[in-house]
């Protein structure tokens, strides 16, 4: 339980620190999102390397996505993805109805505009993990109601 609290505090401080620096003229807001996504990418690469060292090779990208939704997400966020959908043409949609990094924020609509900055790290986390598994992807996230979020993955196998 302490690990979870530390992760949430660290994540909140990373976001707040980067945006605070941008407000003081040390960077731009757009660069903050990119920096958070890059940090998540590197962490995702490292985590997936550690989590898959003793697992068998994946058969296809669907097996990889199932691993991300079950094992990877459970290890990082203490729950599985609530819904995984695909159009079988290179797009997956992962839905988490109670996303841990957003549950600390109010469920009010006034915080929806701040949600994307709290999702950038996670988008990078997923993209980095997939990258280490041989899938080049573009990961975006959307929040229509708090604390639920949807991640859209567009991929191509390397």
TrEMBL record:
InterPro entries, per database record: NO_sig/Golgi_transp_ligand-bd, TRAPP_component, TRAPPC6/Trs33
One GO BP annotation of this record: nervous system development
UniProt entry keywords in alphabetical sequence: Endoplasmic reticulum, Golgi apparatus, Neurogenesis
The keyword Endoplasmic reticulum belongs to this UniProt entry's keyword annotation: yes
Main location: endoplasmic reticulum
Localization, UniProt: Endoplasmic reticulum; Golgi apparatus, cis-Golgi network
Transmembrane segments: none
Pfam families, per the entry: TRAPP
Gene Ontology CC annotations of this record: cis-Golgi network; endoplasmic reticulum; trans-Golgi network; TRAPP complex
Domain of life: Eukaryota
Similarity annotation: Belongs to the TRAPP small subunits family. BET3 subfamily.
Its job: Component of a transport protein particle (TRAPP) complex that may function in specific stages of inter-organelle traffic. Specifically involved in the early development of neural circuitry, likely by controlling the frequency and amplitude of intracellular calcium transients implicated in the regulation of neuron differentiation and survival.
Protein name in the entry: Trafficking protein particle complex subunit 6B
Protein source organism: Anhinga anhinga (Anhinga)
Lineage of the organism: Eukaryota, Metazoa, Chordata, Craniata, Vertebrata
């Amino acid at each position: 339980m302490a690990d979870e609290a530390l992760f949430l505090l660290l994540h909140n401080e990373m976001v707040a620190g980067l945006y605070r620096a941008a407000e003081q003229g040390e960077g731009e807001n757009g660069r903050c999102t990119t920096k958070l996504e890059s940090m998540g990418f590197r962490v995702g690469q490292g985590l997936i390397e550690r989590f898959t060292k003793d697992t068998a090779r994946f058969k296809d990208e669907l097996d990889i996505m199932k691993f991300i939704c079950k094992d990877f997400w459970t290890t990082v966020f203490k729950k599985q993805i609530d819904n995984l959908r695909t159009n079988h043409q290179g797009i997956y949609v992962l839905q988490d109805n109670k996303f841990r990094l957003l549950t600390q924020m109010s469920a009010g609509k006034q915080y929806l505009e701040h949600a994307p900055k709290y999702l950038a790290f996670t988008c990078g986390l997923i993209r980095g993990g997939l990258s280490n598994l041989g899938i080049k992807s573009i990961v975006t996230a959307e929040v229509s109601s708090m604390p639920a979020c949807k991640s859209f993955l567009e991929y191509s196998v390397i």
